[in-house]
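During the second year of the project, the team shifted from modelling isolated chains to modelling whole assemblies. The rationale, set out in the original proposal, was that interfaces cannot be judged from single-chain predictions alone. As a representative example for this report, we include one of the complexes processed in the last quarter. Its constituent sequences, exactly as entered into the pipeline, are reproduced here:
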Amino acid sequence: MKRILVTGSLGQIGSELVIELRKKYGIDNVIATGRRKPINNPVVDDGIYELLDVNDYDEFLRLAQKYQVNVIIHLAAVLSAKAEENPLASWHINMDTLLNALEVSRITNSMLFTCSSIGAFGPNSPKDHTPQDTIMRPTTMYGITKVAQELLCDYYFLKYNVDTRSVRFPGLISNVTKPGGGTTDYAVHIYYDALEKGKYTSFIDKNTYLDMMYMPDAIKCIIDLIEADANKLIHRNAYNVSAMSIEPEMIATSIKKHLPNFVLDYEVDPIRQNIANSWPNSLDTSIAKKEWNFSYQYDLDKMTSDMLKVLQNKKGCK
Ligand code: SER
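Output from the structure prediction step:
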């Protein structure tokens, strides 16, 4: 049976993943961790929750050993736009915590799942149907930490036989916890503002295509990959995954099917636009399909219907 420790449990992915893991593996087999202990939060209240600063290696190891975990899902990280504000500090946070996760996994003989990103690619990677294996020279600190992470995951697998698994997530669109400081965040904010204000001002320009995925598919992705047959996994660094390649006008058109008066305008942020311009338009996900049957359920319109329904219900509850 899997006993799973999750870092960064209160973040955009963690806050939904922990709930699903508890349903699938049982309340006692999921150890959610985070740096804060907010009140009235299901991640904290409805199962095991421990305070953990993942920079603190000793505490990280102590908790992994105390609960005898055999899977670590390491989610704590600084996202792309935030990392550009303070590149050196972001390097330290992303890399130091990754090394702690790798070492704790090695010592406790645990599988390690990490999140890589479309941000691991750079301006001279092929833009369309970006292959699994290709040139990777990112121009952001976030991307540099992701490439280094992928190399280290390969290294720990080859040298120490740590069962490392990872995906290159695209922009993730969610309705529980908003993302903090990413370039693809516009694709989340647009839905909140569509319902709250009837309009949205995008910091990413029209015709900027980026890969995206709805959070339920991202959660499925993580669970499918940690359940995958180890012998079939060749790409231990990280797999390309995506559910759609979209730009702001496409989301607006999809929203207008439900809210015909929705208005999208633009105030482009040059920093985040530059980051977006350096990333692929669309990833080739065929290797993930081949090695562990990667699949997704939500296309743009299906995601839009669900996002608006869930956010509308949340508004109704307030
Ligand atoms: N969503 C992330 C970001 O924009 C990309 O992986 O930083």
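Residues 79-80, 117-119, 142, 169, 171, 182-184 surround serine (CB under 6 Å). The longest helix spans residues 87-108.
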